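Hi, here's the filled form for the chain we discussed.

Project: internal
Contact: R.S.
Residues: 353
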Amino acid sequence: MNIFVIVYYAMLIGASCLAAYLKKRGAFLVLFSLTLASFIMGIIGGEPALRTVTVIAVVLILCAGTAYAFREFLATVLPRKSAEVMRTAPLTASFGLFVIGTYAIAGIFAPVIAPYGEAEIVGQAFAPMSEEMLLGADQLGRDIFSRIVYGARNTVGLALAATLLAFLAGVLLGLISAVKGGCFDQLMGRIADVVMSVPSLIFALLLLSIFGANLTMLVIIIAVIYSPRVFRLTRAVAGNVVVMDYFEAARLRGEGMWHLIRREVLPNSTSPLIAEFGLEFCFVFLLLAGLSFLGLGIQPPAADWGSMVRENATLISFGEITPLIPAAAIALLTVAVNFVVDWVLMRSSGLKE
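And the returned structure, exactly as it came back:
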C-alpha cells in the first residue's frame, strides 16, 4: 500500500468524521458511501481504480465550484428581483447556465476565438496535438479546435433555428385549436398523431432523401417533425385555461380569438412552454447531430460536431480521444439544457393565479 492509497483513505475518513461532527447529514452520507465504495473498488481494481475515482471527484468539485461562483456572479450583476431568483437556484441550474453561456460566446465570437479558419488546411492529416494545434488535425489536416469552435455556431445555431420554427408553429396551432375547438381542433389533432407515429430519424431520412439536404430544407423538415409535440403540449395546457371562468367571461364580452389568445390563454401557459422549449431544443439538437453523423445534416466543408465524430472515428482504433471531444460537446450541452429545464419546471406552478 503506497502513500497515495493511505492519503486517499485518510482524507475520506477524516472528511466523513468532520461532516458527522458538524451534523451535516447529507455530506456525511455522500462521503461515507464514497468511502465504502472506494474500499470495494480498491480491492477489485487496485490503485488505478482509486485514481480514477479521484479524478472524477476533482472534476465534480471543479464543476460545483464553477457553478457556485457563476451563481454568485449573476446574483451580483442582475437586478434585485432576478438576483433573488438566482440565489435560490440549485448548483445544477447555474452550471447549466454557465455552459450555455460559454457555448453562446463560442458561437458568436468564433472567428475571434478560433486560431484558424473553419476549412483551412494547416497541417498533415491526423497531426498530433501541439502548441499550434491544441487538439491536433483531422483527416484533411484542418485544426480540430477551430472546427469545434465553429461547430458551436453551425450545429447549435441551426438547431436553435429549427427549434424556434417548430416551437412557433406548434404553439400557434395549439393555441388556435384550444380556442376554436370543433372540427379544426380534431383535424389538427389527427395530423399531429400521424406525424408523431413515425420515428423521428426515419421520417427525417425519408424527407431528406426526397427534398435534399440543404440547410433551409433541413430546418423546415426538423420543424415539421417536432412541431406536433409542441402542439400537443400547448393544446393540453391551453385546454385547461379555456374552461376557466375568466376565459368564458372574456368570450361572452365579445373578445376576438387573437385577443383571447394574447391576453387570456398565453400569459397563463408561459412557464410550461418555456420548459418545453428547452426539451425540444435537446431533441432537435440530438437529431441534427445524428443526421450529420449519417452524412445528411450540415454538409462539408462547414464544421459540425456530428460529422466531426464520423470523420475522425478512425482515431479511436489508435487509442486517441479526438473523436470523443465533439461527442462530449454534444452531451455536455444536452445535459446543461436539461439542468436549466429541470429548474424551470421546479419553479413553475402551472397556471398563474
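Let me know if anything looks off before we file it.
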